[in-house]
Amino acid sequence: MTRILVADDNRQLVEMLRAMLEDAGYDVVSASSGLAASALLDKEEVDLLILDVLMPGMSGDAVADLLRRSRPDLPVLLMTGDSGESFVPGTAYPVLRKPFSEQQLVEAVRLLLPSI
């Protein structure tokens, strides 16, 4: 089963994302910070990262950049509540703007995991 790591410091949002993704048939593991996500990735195999951009300690894009060195093919989807363009300056990762629908989330995941 396809496993997705969701990291956000908003616990309610993490649980909502877990429910949405599990309804779509994915296995979900979660972390409440960038540092926790990074530590979890040392123990867990995942197929996709969904990371909030603004988290205490280590931002989502910093986690993604750190992991690019060891797992360059691991897809990353960033989430942000900031309005603006469809990318975060300084990153090459796709961004999902909050608030988003379950359909938008699942569609973004399927675009990033076409062969799984």
Question: Would you give an account of this structure?
Answer:
Helix content is 37%, strand content 20%. The mean pLDDT is 88. It has a single domain, classed as Response regulator (Rossmann fold), CATH 3.40.50. The radius of gyration is 13 Å and the shape is globular.
Overall residue-averaged pLDDT value: 88
CATH architecture: 3-Layer(aba) Sandwich
Beta-strand fraction estimate:
15-25%
Predict the CATH topology.
Rossmann fold
Q: What overall geometry do the principal axes of the alpha carbons give?
A: globular
Indicate the topology:
Elements (H helix, E strand, L loop, with lengths): L2 E5 L3 H13 L3 E5 L2 H8 L6 E5 L7 H11 L5 E5 L14 E3 L4 H11 L4
Parallel strand pairs: 1-2, 1-3, 3-4, 4-5
Helix pairs in contact: 2-3
Q: Quick recap of the structure?
A:
With 116 residues, this protein is α/β, with parallel strands linked by helices. The protein is 37% helix and 20% strand.
Supply the key terms.
alpha/beta; Rossmann fold; 5 strands; 4 helices; 116 residues
